[in-house]
Amino acid sequence: MELQRKTIAKAIVVVFVFNLVVMGAGAWFAYQEAPPIPDEVVGPDGDVVVSGDAIREGKTVFQKDGLMNHGSILGNGAYYGADYTADALDLKVQFMRNYYAQERYGEPYDRLDSADQAAVADVVKSDLDDSYEGGAIRYTAAEVYAHEQVRQEYVERYHEGDHERGVPVNMIDSEEEARAFADFAMWTAWFSHTDRPDGTHSYTNDWPYQPGAGNDATAASMTWSVAAMVLLVAGAGLGIWLYKSVELPEPSAEDIAVPEPGDVSVFPSQRAALRFIPVAAGLFLAQVLLGGLLAHFYIERAGFFGVESIFGVPILQLLPFAIAKTWHIDLGILWIAATWLGAGLFLPPLLTGYEPPKQSTYINVLLGAIVVVVVGGLSGIWLGANGYIDGSLWWILGNEGLEYLEVGKLWQFGILAGFLIWAALAVRGLKPLLDREPPYGLAHMILYAGGSIALLFTAGFLFTPETNIAVTEFWRWWVVHMWVEGAFEFFIVAIVGLTLVSMNLLSRRSAEKAVMLQALLVMGTGIIGVSHHYWWVGMPDMWVPIGSVFSTLELIPLVFILYEALGQYRAMSGESFPYRLPFMFIVASGVWNFVGAGVLGFFINLPLINYYEHGTYLTVGHAHAAMFGAFGFLALGMVTYMLQLSIDAERWDGSWLHAAFWCWNVGLVLMVFVSVLPVGFLQLETAFTGSYAAARSVAFYDQPLIQTLFWARLPGDTLIILGTVIYAADLVRKRFVLRQSADDPSVEDMAVAEGILGDDD
Fold first, then answer.
1. Range of the domain at 60
2. DSSP letters spanning 452-485
3. Residue 677, by phi and psi: left (phi above 0), alpha (psi -120 to 50) or beta?
4. pLDDT number for residue 317
5. What is the pLDDT of residues 30-88, one digit of tens each?
6. What is the pLDDT of residue 747?
7. How confident is the model over 691-695, as a mean pLDDT?
8. Where are the alpha helices (DSSP H) in 483-579?
């Protein structure tokens, strides 16, 4: 069948509105159904154990001191330290068992015989298997004892420091704050084992797995995992039928006049856009170096190859895991985003032959502003986490302390302003196309893709440090997941479409139809697919079926993106095609998108698997393959294309980039499949046969086999670092062979622009 662009555009609008309705209703339910923060928690004699204000203060400490990038809460965060919810629940069970063992038998629990241990364990499970009907939380005497013991444990661990756990001294500044953090962690443990009113399972759907507290996978996890598998087969069949039924241009190299790089003039604005590349490369290099340090911290938790003991340099105190992890994540986002912004400003002259007045000046201003935001944000993280920004400004100027949203709100606002400025500059550059094409044209699509990134980022401004953690997580995942599975995927297909058009490999109208169809599939699955992040964080039960369905369907558009990328490469891989190297990166992006986001993402998002896997190294494998593999390689492919157009053909040398390409790919394969995923599968087994806390414990990580697998990551990490060093060095080398921009280029100077502007029939 022949689908018109207008028809697909209408379908996209319908899907977008549907997404807004579903997620808007979800936001309302998030506030209504979030686990309650009580006014107080009281013991059996009515004495107050902890107040609601102390719980809120504990969440503030959790964010201010960057604890989410040392360990995790409700399974979300870093996997180096404990998951605080699972750890607090595990400690609660242990201390309650000891309390009853001493009370009844006068012996510690581990010294009792099996029959007495079973009797004590049943009493503890009975205490914890309770529901909440409102008012104050009422503890048993055993729970009061356990709460006090956990407070002391957290003071010793997170205030006094614990090098065996990789915790620096004064990670939390004071004993009082450490106790407040313990109160917060114990509250999350409470709602993880306490049933909802009139419900049969806890606020977290009985996560984390802790048999001693009565927490086990719910029937819905099994039911919807089976439904997801059935849906995948049905959805794949429907998707293939739709894709085959819609008439789209097959990539072909026949009768294509691909412009040679030397035939295209370089505009002043494009030279300005090229300046984003070395800035992004510096951020990229810093990111991979920090990644190597983070990987080694799992082996030597208080040092780096003996530097601390040999030279007396306190690595753990100077650069704790939490700060290094925060910078590593933020640098990854920033270098990819900076590269995409540069590419988005480089491409318009190729499509229009048009240079707006003072465009290069404005691009330089944007780059300068981005540098200020990056330096300010990264500095604020260190200053805030080390207590130099105190009072109410810590989360404005310093470290907000939420994974992927670590930088202070001022710097987040600067990032949002940067996206808006970029959109304005892109509109200026694409104006000839925007004026001539309908609202669903290719130039509009790239603006919609970039604009959606900025739009979703606003969700990060809808909470404060005092907001309930469940509601905070609801909005945080709007930014994180909807970027990755929605806006970023949309941007990928749009930017690749623009690239094909700029090479004269597709007509604009054909590219528009292909981009719109893939955007329809991406938006139709990826946005509501965020709901699989809500299964265990205290959100309503409705997200289990919704998340299962849409997380399953997320795989389908990734298959089509991979299929298109491979088809394009086969058609264009002849010796006469001058842009083979950029296309190698774009195809690699499609492959890794399918493997990382698709295959690994689908596997860990089955509810029954996710129940035990949530927050383990399987997620690390998925994240690295999807983020660097999909989005990073696309960014690097655009860099290669921009550089090739900006250097005289006789002076172009892609050998170093080619070497870097294979270093990155081989390194990523070794890191993910030789080290990270095997650790993840062993964690999954430990969680399933023991408890989730055991799978995240230092004892698990210290096992000889796990340590060997951590060492096995070294070759892969080394290759990734080597590839990045080669890449950075090549950029320095190429800086001296860039062509000068034309003083006043016209449409006639642009081999591409003439065909694009005339493609309106």
1. 43-216
2. HHHHHHGGGGS--TTS-HHHHHHHHHHHHHIIII
3. alpha
4. 81
5. 999 999 999 999 999 989 999 999 999 999 999 999 999 999 999 999 999 999 999 99
6. 47
7. 95
8. 488-502, 508-526, 543-553, 555-572
Question: Please, are residues 509 and 9 in contact by the beta-carbon 8 Å criterion?
Answer: no
| Rounded Cα–Cα distance for residues 2 and 14 (Å) | 20
**What are 317-368's pLDDT values in tens digits?**
888 999 999 999 999 989 998 998 898 899 888 878 788 899 999 999 999 9
CB neighbour list of residue 68: distance below 8 Å, 6 or more residues apart: 62, 76, 77, 78, 401, 402, 403
Q: Is residue 241 part of a domain?
A: no
Residues 390 and 513 in one domain: no
- Closest alpha carbon to 656 in 584, 735, 726: 726
Question: Which of these, 213, 59, 55, 44, lies nearest to 144 by C-alpha position?
Answer: 44
**CB contact at 8 A, 236 and 556:** yes
Residue 748: DSSP 8-state: G
Q: How many domains does the chain have?
A: 4
Is 180 a domain residue?
yes
427 within a domain of the structure (yes/no): yes
CA angle at 420 for the pair 415 and 422, rounded to the nearest 5°: 95
Question: What is the pTM (predicted TM-score) of this model?
Answer: 0.89
Residues 422 and 510 in one domain: no
| Residue that finishes a domain, picked among 387, 418, 435 | 435
Q: Which residues contact 753 (CB under 8 A, 6 or more apart)?
A: 349, 350, 351, 352, 353, 354, 747
Q: For residue 314, what pLDDT is reported?
A: 78
Pairing status of strand 40-42 against strand 48-51 = antiparallel
Other CB atoms within 10 Å distance of the CB of residue 733: 11
For residue 22, tell me if it sits in a domain.
no
Query: What is the DSSP pairing of strand 76-77 with strand 72-73?
Result: antiparallel
* Residue type (1 letter), 490: F
Beta bridge partners of 73: 76
Percentage of the chain surpassing pLDDT 70?
87
In the predicted model, what is the mean pLDDT of the chain? 85
